Amino acid sequence: MAVAQPVVVSLADLKTGNISFETLQEAFGPESLGILVVKDVPTEFPALRHQLLSYASWMGNLSEKDFEQFTNEAAKYLVGWSKGKEKLKDGSADEYKGSFYANCAFYVDPSLESAKPTKQFTLEEFPEYLAPNSWPLKEMLPGFRPIMEQMCTLIIDTAVLVARACDKFAEKEIPDYPTAYLENVVKSSSTTKARLLHYYPMPDEALAKGMEEDNWCAVHKDHGCLTGLTSAMFVDELKTNVKVPSFEGSELPETLPTIEELSASPDPQAGLWIKDRKGVPVQVKIPRDCIAFQTGEALERITNGKFKAVEHSVRGAYAKGVARNTLAVFTQPNLEDEVDLEQHMNFGEFARGVIARNTVG
User: Fold this and answer.
1) Helix 181-188 with 144-173: angle, nearest 10 deg
2) Is beta strand 217-220 parallel, antiparallel or unpaired with respect to 226-229?
3) What is the three-class DSSP state of 313?
4) CB 190 within 8 A of CB 116
5) Distance of alpha carbon 167 from its chain centroid, rounded?
6) What global pTM score does this model have?
7) Which residues contact 52 (CB under 8 A, 6 or more apart)?
8) What strands, in cross-sheet order, belong to the sheet with 312-315?
């Protein structure tokens, strides 16, 4: 099993601008893995991570009737709950994971539930990004929304610092690169999306079938700028009760309790796999107290290929009853922001094609 060591930098060095161009090239350049791990993050991060990833199991085990209340078919399931709507490499629907998508427009303006429509991008034509958030009712998952928003804010704050470091490199290496372009995109965007993922325990037939490279998530590239990732949380759902308790007749708690986390995946090959620049899959492990950032296709375009988008997948755990929970925050430009400075293509036009390619139906 090939385990790759990603480039690691400290939050303090990002804040002071003490990241060398060589470090950025090693993390994001043409020969890189396309991933940067940030250590020494704010002290509240580990507890927030445990709380939020516990909610992924609580949510994933709600009833179908509950799911219907925060599912948005018109938005192509890219707001609220989604399961079985993403294409795998053979074209079939991915039934192994459930996702909760949230627009992170609250980062720019706490009153916003999505980006604002424009003349070019209307709600009717682009609900994937412009439909308001579909949060589960407080009675269903008490405490979920504020914890989700707090975690996303912390990750985007860190992404802004990573973007600032990328800008310094791009301003030196790319002719006519706009000053602080990527930092401004990340911190002013109202189209950044978060995705809380619950990878269900693999069914018996999948376990019997044997190992597949990406049985939980097909090999793909993210289409945003920088994707912020937490480390995965593995849960034994055979031993742990993951059904939300009934609160009928009693006062709602402020938050749901955290769920016991396995010390490691029972299957060491489960988790995030990246294709290196020679096309060889290597496993990357993110420490629990760190945030990782992967490069997306918009960043590759913005930097004229100086930084390369990374191909990656998630491999299933061959262990009965084991679920995997994680959070991805896709920092993305506003819909009308240019992502190809030569062809003058904006992010909305670019994203529309990617969504059509990846969604079932």
Assistant:
1) 170
2) unpaired
3) strand
4) yes
5) 22
6) 0.93
7) 147, 148, 151, 196, 230, 327
8) 3-4, 281-284, 271-275, 312-315, 217-220
Radius of gyration of the chain from Cα atoms?
20
Average pLDDT, the chain: 89
Query: What is the pLDDT, as a whole number, of residue 360?
Result: 46
- Distance set, CA 316 to CA 10, 96, 142, 209 (Å): 30, 9, 30, 12
CA distance 293 to 302: 17
- Structure token pair of residue 126: 């682009």
- Please name the residue ranges forming H helices in 179-330: 181-188, 204-209, 297-302
The encoded tokens of residue 341 equal: 């400075």
Rounded Cα distance between 179 and 169, Å, is 11
Residue 21, CA distances (Å) to 11, 75, 165, 172, 279 in order: 16, 40, 8, 10, 25
d(C-alpha 126, C-alpha 348), whole Å = 9
Average pLDDT estimate for 76-96: 74
Q: Which of left, alpha, beta for 21 (phi over 0: left; psi -120 to 50: alpha)?
A: alpha
What are the distances in angstroms from CA 81 to CA 33, 75, 105, 259, 323? Answer: 31, 11, 18, 21, 17
Using pLDDT thresholds of 50, 70 and 90, give the confidence band for residue 13.
very high
Cα distance between residue 121 and residue 279, in whole Å: 37
Look up residue 3 and give its two tokens.
């385990």
Q: Which residue's structure tokens are 């107290």?
A: 289
Give bridge partners of residue 9 from the DSSP assignment.
Answer: 38
pLDDT per residue over 274-330, tens digit each?
988 788 889 999 999 999 999 998 888 888 888 888 888 887 788 899 999 999 999
Q: What is the DSSP string of 97-139?
A: EEEEEEE-GGGT-TT-SSPPP-SSS-TTT-HHHHSPP-PPPTT
Instruction: Decide: helix, strand or coil at residue 268.
Output: coil
d(CA 346, CA 340): 7
The pLDDT tens digits of the residues spanning 105-131 come to 999 999 999 999 999 999 998 998 999
Helical H segments across the chain, by residue range: 11-16, 21-28, 45-60, 64-68, 127-130, 144-173, 181-188, 204-209, 297-302, 347-358
Query: Residue 74 is which amino acid?
Result: A
